[in-house]
Amino acid sequence: VQLQASGGGLVQAGDSLRLSCLASGRTLTNYNMGWFRQAPGKEREFVAALWRRSGPYYADAVKGRFAISRDNAKNTVYLQMSSLKLEDTAVYYCAADPSIIYSSITDFSRYRYYGQGTLVTVSS
Description:
By secondary structure, the protein is an all-beta fold.
């Protein structure tokens, strides 16, 4: 599976932005998907996941502001981001795995596939 994240850009605090993760090589229908981000000088952190056997799961920092979804027809996973804050500035990565267990969905190293990130910069 090749993953390509896109949709990043420069926005102002309070704005919305939608990131896309387009997959090629495999259909994403049977994959568990995750979004992660890495801010400058910080460790990569979990943002959101869409586990096949249950609903979406979010990091506390983005709960209520971000929404993860998938469009199987377009083989694409989205991250809709609203009410963006300065601290949301980061490179965002999408990841996919066909069999990751629920207890590992926040662990980037457990995903088999991931793509290059897309930069989101939130300004005041």
